[in-house]
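Quick start: read one record
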Amino acid sequence: MAETKKDIQQEYAKLQMLDEQIKMLQKQLETYEAQLVEIMNMKTAIEEFSKVRPGTEMLVPIGPGIFVKGSVMDTKNLTISVGAGTAVSKTLDEGKGLLDLQARDVEQARMTVLKETERIIEQARKIEKEILSA
């Protein structure tokens, strides 16, 4: 009987570990979903920007919740940060294309994490059944 109780305790510890992994993976999923929403919002912003005429006044963000008035000089190109303090000029369509690539990569990562989450949940269900049948 002591061996069985020890086995149940070990299985319960595995179940708790799997629960922690599931919680961590769910946080990753939330992050990926937020990134996808942000990418879609940027694509929408580019679509809206394509309707702006040169010389149009707008508020330009210079920090979170801080804006300055400015006027649009170029409505055909975007300046995109590529890291390490470097920025490149891209057309609106090229910018949307880059966002599409980012969205695809994030969606692939999200699907990988989702499959892993489902695998771990199934593993946890099996352990839970074993504990309950002991």
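The two ends are 11 Å apart (CA to CA).
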